[in-house]
Amino acid sequence: MCDTLFTMAKKRIGVHVGTAGGPWTAVQRAVDYGANTFQIFSSSPRTWKSGTVRPEDAEKMRALRAEFDINPLAIHASFLINLCSQTESVRESSIGALRAEVQQGLALGAEYLVLHPGSWKGLTRDEGLRLAVQGVEKAVDGLDWQGKNFEVLIENMPGAEFSLGGSFEQVAELVDRLKPCAPVAVCLDTCHTHVAGYDIVSAEGYEATMKLLGETVGFGAVKVWHCNDAKAAMGSKLDRHEHIGEGTIGAEAFRRLLHDTRFDHAAFIAETPGDESGDELRNVMALRVLSAG
User: What pLDDT does residue 46 have?
Assistant: First the structure.
């Protein structure tokens, strides 16, 4: 059944996978999970330290991706990065870490780098937005983007107080202000969207939410959907991921999203819990079944 679904599926559906043994090993893991797109961390997401991409590893990854037609590749930036922190030392470390993430993404031939904008606690929202923009500008200054199919994706947040990017309007404003300095687009997370208070569960609510999305971010700007069901209620601001179809969002909402032709260009990548063996496969297959039916 897995082979049939993989062959029939037109959507780019995948999952976040590990890179133990080298970044190129993630490609085979993605294939084993029935994915034709995937996301990785380029280094530990909870430390400032970043590794160096070995040319031979990058070449192996490119060759395997071409062999199995696995694309796009998204890299998720470190969770420590907070470009709008009130603390200067954190901002400086974040700028350095983001620059390293971009350099690794370019070296690996990734298409996307997914970035959390950060928290402006202790500042005003406008100050936080200004610092975030300045941080990205400094991080990418002087880097060679020519001929590279690579974009930084601003991810929407769960809407918690002081979190930049908690609304579609904030994401759209940040993208607009970043366009002069870097190729930038958007990653939307279903769990974040849901707990931020946007209704994607009911048919009427979904259309109202998509209308607002089209008027702010724009459908074409959404390059990746992080497909995560939610443990918490809509509007709760609590970012707790659940397996596809087993949370407060539910399977039908994912079916609706996967069949929405306005996102035919986008990749759908699960970041669901991977506590037990087989969790990645079952979530990818759940998305494939919903996409096919």
Answer: 76
Say if CB 153 and CB 114 are below 8 A apart: yes
What is the domain partition of the chain in residue ranges?
2-292
Give pLDDT, residue 4: 42
Q: Is the pTM of this model over 0.85?
A: yes
User: Maximum distance among all alpha carbons in the chain?
Assistant: 53
Q: Which helix (H) or strand (E) holds 136?
A: helix 125-140
Region 35-46 average pLDDT: 90
Nearest to 182 by CA among 238, 125, 235, 142: 142
- Comparing C-alpha atoms, which of 23, 9, 73, 91 is closest to residue 51? 23
Neighbours of 6 (CB within 10 A): 16
pLDDT at 6: 43
For residue 35, the one-letter residue type is A
Rounded Cα gap, residues 226 and 145, in angstroms: 25
Radius of gyration of the chain (CA): 18
The topology (CATH level 3) of 2-292 is TIM Barrel (3.20.20)
Express the helix, strand and coil content of the chain in percent, nearest 5 each.
45, 15, 40
Residue 171: other Cβ atoms inside 10 A: 25
Please give the Cα distance from 55 to 168 (Å, whole number): 38
258 is written with which tokens?
């996967």
| Residue entry with tokens 């991409």 | 53
Give, in order, the Cα–Cα distances in Å from 186 to each of 14, 91, 175, 177, 255.
17, 22, 8, 13, 21
**What φ, ψ does residue 248 adopt, rounded to 5°?**
-80, -10
Distance CA(153)–CA(169), nearest Å, equals: 15
* pLDDT for residue 7: 41
- Give the separation between CA 169 and CA 54, rounded to whole angstroms: 39
pLDDT tens track for 57-93: 999 999 999 999 999 999 999 999 999 999 999 999 9
